[in-house]
Amino acid sequence: MEIFLSKFRNLSGFDIKSIRKINTPNEFKDFVCENLKEASVCFMMSLYIGNGEKSMEIFDALVERKVKNLETVIVLDKNRGKRNSEILNVIKDKNLEDFFYFYDFKKYYMLPAKIRELLYVYHPKVYIFDSNVILTGANLHDTYFSNRIDRYFVVESEKFADYLKNEMFYKILPSLGNYTKLLDNSSFVVEILTKTYILMFDNRQEEEILRKILLEDFQDIFLSTAYLNFPETYFDLFNYKNISIVTAGPECNTFDLNNKNEKYIVQLYSLSAYKTLDRLNNMQYYEFGRKDTTFHFKGLWAFSNGFALTVIGSTNFNLRSNVRDEERNFLIVTKDEKLIQIYKEEIKFMLENSRKVELEELKNRKPSLLSKISYHLFHRYF
Fold first, then answer.
1. In contact, 350 and 299? CB cutoff 8 Å
2. Spatial distance between the Cα atoms of 54 and 49, rounded to a whole number of angstroms
């Protein structure tokens, strides 16, 4: 493990003594609400927030924080976060404006909001409560609190929490006034103090991270994405690897098959899956199909003798994540047997709720002509 970690000297790394998993969307919501009520300091970053019944529990807890005058910072993507005008009314009515920051990281102000959202969004997710950090791909919305399946790791580390506040919040919000430029952390792997290490990286570093992982002689590699659409360079990375890929089946895609517009987007991903499997002959392809759920269980897992790793965060490992949106992801490398078992249980959960799909079945789905045309015109946008 130490030799493997030495490949990542350009990243800031943190030895972690306490990490655990939240299992369900409802547990995720409860954890957020409970910590909003109890934590002295709260920093949350999400693509957007909802105003449904479950999401209003978040707002109720925020009102309590306002009364207690507790430090609270919430960053949302400006375009996606303001799409629903009712959210802005809720924030105003509850006098929570000073908690919320709507961030537009590319600032193409001349373009309409919907066009800007098509071109890019600020996509990172992280939830910090004092020294507890939730790493996840989930947003603060009712769907993510009910039936949208995601991953959630709770890391307890004051040093890690302070680092994330500095690099993910203070750095982009000068008005907070607390940003400190950190020194290079290139010597972090000289001594491994614990069994688990976490490293943060962004979408500009993702390809190189994957390359270093895939150059290692891992016995089993699994990758999951809610939206399968690899960048061209990833085909070269995966081409000679025995890798298993899990994505949403048509009925579990976050886009609605019953919506006349969104059903074409679902067809786009089936077409992308066909093109992917056609090029990656060694790939084992699975589609998640758990009834009454949607699939947002994104990540990468790799297992070797003595240690294992996972990637968790906002990326979908696709073209959009790679070149359009801003992402933050976390590589968790461990030789802790209990954490390795959690990784294995995640794989088991996915495969038990998925079925293997062959190339011929994807070919027989026969997407509409409109979907084929849309794929060639817009595949860089999804």
1. no
2. 11
Query: What is the CA 53 to chain-centroid distance, rounded?
Result: 24
Domain tally for the chain?
A: 2
Within 10 angstroms of residue 353's Cβ, the number of other Cβ atoms is: 20
Query: Using CA atoms, how far apart are residues 338 and 265, in angstroms rounded to an integer?
Result: 39
Q: Which residue is associated with the tokens 């509409």?
A: 368
Within a domain: 225: yes
C-alpha span between 64 and 82 (Å, rounded): 23
Q: Which two tokens stand for residue 144?
A: 């993510």
Q: Do 377 and 229 lie in a common domain?
A: yes
Sign of the torsion angle spanned by Cα atoms 223, 224, 225, 228: positive
Structure tokens belonging to residue 30: 């409860």
Residue-wise pLDDT for 213-238, tens only, equals 999 989 899 999 999 999 999 999 99
CA angle 361, 366, 369 (to 5 degrees): 160
**Do residues 65 and 109 share a domain?**
yes
For residues 123 and 327, what is the distance between their CA atoms, to the nearest angstrom?
Answer: 5
pLDDT digits (tens, 9 = 90+) for 232-277: 999 999 998 899 999 999 999 888 766 767 777 888 899 999 999 9
Pairing of strands 196-202, 13-16: antiparallel
DSSP result, 157-212: -HHHHHHHIIIIIITT-GGG----PPPP-TTTTSS--SSEEEEEEEHHHHHHHHHH
| Tokens read off for 272 | 């992308």
Over range 139-157, report the average pLDDT. Answer: 98
- Mean per-residue pLDDT over the chain, rounded: 92
Are 87 and 55 found together in one domain?
A: yes
> Do β-strands 132-136 and 152-156 pair in parallel, antiparallel, or remain unpaired?
antiparallel
Average pLDDT score over residue span 138-143: 98
| pLDDT for res 288 | 97
Q: 126 falls in which pLDDT band (50, 70, 90)? A: very high
The pTM score is 0.94
